[in-house]
Design brief:
- This protein is an alpha+beta fold.
- The protein folds into 2 domains: 1-33, no CATH class; 35-87, N-terminal domain of TfIIb (Single Sheet), CATH 2.20.25.30.
- It has 2 helices and 4 strands, in the order αββββα.
- It has a 4-stranded antiparallel beta sheet with strand order 1-2-3-4, with no helix packed on it.
- Strand 1 (36-37) and strand 2 form a beta hairpin.
- The radius of gyration is 17 Å and the shape is elongated.
Length: 87
């Protein structure tokens, strides 16, 4: 299957889906498939196992996160509040 410059791996939807839909799909798909840093061991090997389930391939640490990203906006806000309380 040929890849295009505009839509990369969304080219599998062909022209029938429309360019704007394929671009929106890419905004979700690319970050979802990236590797992220593990909170426990610090290595960049965390991958998505299932919907909202993330696993470190190095240390085996499994945790629940966002559907498409390991941490959600709400999680970041809570972590900032914890830091303020500790200080």
């Amino acid at each position: 299957m040929a890849r295009t410059k505009k839509v990369k791996q969304a080219a599998k939807f062909r022209a029938s889906a429309g360019l704007s839909v394929r671009r929106k799909w890419l905004e979700i798909d690319i970050p979802q498939r990236q590797k992220y840093v593990c909170k426990k061991c610090g290595k960049k090997v965390v991958k998505r196992v299932g919907t909202g389930i993330w696993e470190c391939k190095s240390c085996g640490y499994k945790f629940a996160g966002g559907c498409y990203l390991p941490s959600t906006i709400a999680t970041r806000i809570i972590e900032k509040e914890k830091v303020k309380v500790e200080q």
